[in-house]
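Q: Hi! First time doing this. I have a protein sequence and I read that you can turn it into a structure. Is that right? Here it is:
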Amino acid sequence: MTCILYVDDSQTQLENVRQVLAQQGHEVRTAMTVEEAIECMQDGKVELGLIDYHMPGATGVEALQTIRARAKPNPLVRFYIYTSDNKAQAEYRKHAFHGAILRKGDTAALVAQLEPVVRLLELTKLARR
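A: Yes, that's right. Below is the predicted 3D structure, encoded as structure tokens:
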């Protein structure tokens, strides 16, 4: 299916989300730091980035800026902020994210919110063939 990069400073959250998204058939790469995220993007397979907004050392906005500057992802890669911060959700476009995913505390809500995003990515891939 879709190759998803998930960046979060919580090892528990990384593992929970990885497991749930992998069960949905996705290839999931996880990173706790911007450096790890950049490494995950080197082969050009990542199609969707999900970035936690509140992380020590760098906000999700700063992480996205660094990833774009150093990993130089394909312009078709979509990046979504993952947060419970209402202001960050409302301003995601201002920070060059393609969308915002509401962190509700359960992975079922994440899967439900990502489903239309992944479906659109899959349709876009089919249209390019």
